[in-house]
């Protein structure tokens, strides 16, 4: 099912707004931390260049270390946190799409679909099965790591985040993470909306076929 009402296209703000907090502050006003910070600042965005196989392998290893196995759950939980406040509006829109639904059946469905926790459990299951978050993370973060780090730096960071390169991770990650989320979440928007529609339609049918 697709959502037609602009007031419940909840992901517009969630997916397109910049993350707030420390990451934004760090990105706007990076604190001077010596060579590592200066080196990152010099690398302004440029046209994409070919990334060597060795450098790509190092970046992909770092993505695994930094994102970890909880990536899918983390993104899905972020989506649910944004869905929760307007869940009632989403349910109402699902039912509004059925013009022949009588008032009595509508009340039954509203009551039966009101349990957000039941919706969330099914959403998480469906999201994990349908969305390849690691692929999206790679598409977004590989170019970012390529921009912010040289291959030798990546090699040092992969060795347990030690030395000067490890300190650079602490300096760069807030800005890189914020920019990465702005790239990842919009790419997931169509799949998230589709899964929300599927889960709501499935719950509606289970309550009143």
Can you put this structure into words, describing what you see?
- Helix 5 runs antiparallel to helix 8 (116-130) and helix 8 (116-130) crosses helix 11 (163-207).
- This protein has 209 residues and is mainly alpha-helical.
- The model is unreliable at 4-33 and 38-42 (pLDDT under 50).
- The longest helix is centred in the C-terminal third of the chain and has 45 residues, at 163-207.
- It has helices spanning 11-16, 22-28, 35-42, 53-67, 71-83, 87-96, 103-112, 116-130, 133-148, 151-158, 163-207.
- Helix content is 73%, strand content 0%.
Give a brief description.
This protein is mainly α and 209 residues long. The protein is built from eleven helices and no strands. Helices cover 73% and strands 0% of the residues.
């Amino acid at each position: 099912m697709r959502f037609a009402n602009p007031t419940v296209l909840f992901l517009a703000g969630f997916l397109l707004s910049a993350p707030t907090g420390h990451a934004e502050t760090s990105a706007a006003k990076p604190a001077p931390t010596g060579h590592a910070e200066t080196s990152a600042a010099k690398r302004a965005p440029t046209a994409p260049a070919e990334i060597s196989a060795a450098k790509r392998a190092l970046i992909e290893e770092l993505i695994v270390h930094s994102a970890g196995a909880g990536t899918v759950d983390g993104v899905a939980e972020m989506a649910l946190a944004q869905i929760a406040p307007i869940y009632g509006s989403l349910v109402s829109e699902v039912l509004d799409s059925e013009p022949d639904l009588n008032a009595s059946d509508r009340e039954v469905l509203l009551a039966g679909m009101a349990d957000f926790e039941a919706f969330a459990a099914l959403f998480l299951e469906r999201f994990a099965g349908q969305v390849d978050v690691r692929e999206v993370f790679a598409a977004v973060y590989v170019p970012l790591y390529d921009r912010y780090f040289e291959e030798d730096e990546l090699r040092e960071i992969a060795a347990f985040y030690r030395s000067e390169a490890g300190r650079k991770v602490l300096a760069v990650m807030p800005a890189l993470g914020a920019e990465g989320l702005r790239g990842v979440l919009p790419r997931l928007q169509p799949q998230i909306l589709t899964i929300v529609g599927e889960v709501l339609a499935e719950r509606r049918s289970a309550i009143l076929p």
